[in-house]
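quick one before i forget lol
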Amino acid sequence: MTLIDDAFAGLKTNLEITAAEQKLAQSRHVLIRDHIRTRWSLSADFLTGSYDRHTKTKKLKDVDLFVVIDPEGDQGDLASGSGTAAVDALAEVLGTKWSDVSTDETVVTVAYAGEDVASYEVAPAFGTAEGYKIPNGAGWMETNPNKHAEMVSAKNQACGSKFVPLVKMIKGMNREAGEPISPSFLIEVMALDLVQAPLGRYQDEVRFFLAAAVDAALEDWPDPAGLGPDVNGSAQPWERTAHQNAFRTWHAVAEEAILLENEGQERAAVAKWKTLFGSRMPG
């Protein structure tokens, strides 16, 4: 292996969630789910999002949970009300145990200040014929996170288990840059389409993805499950242009790094890659 291959192998390891981090995350989400069950009748509760799909990068934050409300239980009438009312009702339940609770149009966030596991985003949900519906402001939107997870798993298998680490690398790059690509789920959705098996070296695959993403950032990217709104549906034209500019800037750096490698300047190439990945990349 070359010095650059070693650096990317170290990057892959440094982006993985450790056993200790997983244990801490599990203790927190179990506590939250158990508390909600003392107040609400649920038909299911489960992890979702990038943590469940194993595409979450460390340090952990925003661990996603669905709590699926039993339509026959006391909270079943929330299904006929507004999404806002369901979020507010869940926030009231969580507020009886945690002090740092906030809401947005979709979820209730429980924060743990000063800890590696920074927050949990809990979505109240109802089962539907094709998946689930969760709040979307005053209304509701259809989604199926289980379908998303199946698609990522299948893609990862087709790519020789290199797809998930590649997505983590791009997400790590995004986080290092202050997350100009938002939501980060957009990166996953784009990668499902733009990354093609078989995969070669990570440094080459990063460059290939960024090159393809430059123009693709301006396109509509539908919910992979075909249920909810476009993943970038709320992005204004200027925001999509900002996404494009971020991908273009990163791609230019990747091209420089590959050129340095081809010239035999491996240490300079690693240093160039580190401008994208920061301290997560050794060397």
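fyi The mean pLDDT is 90.
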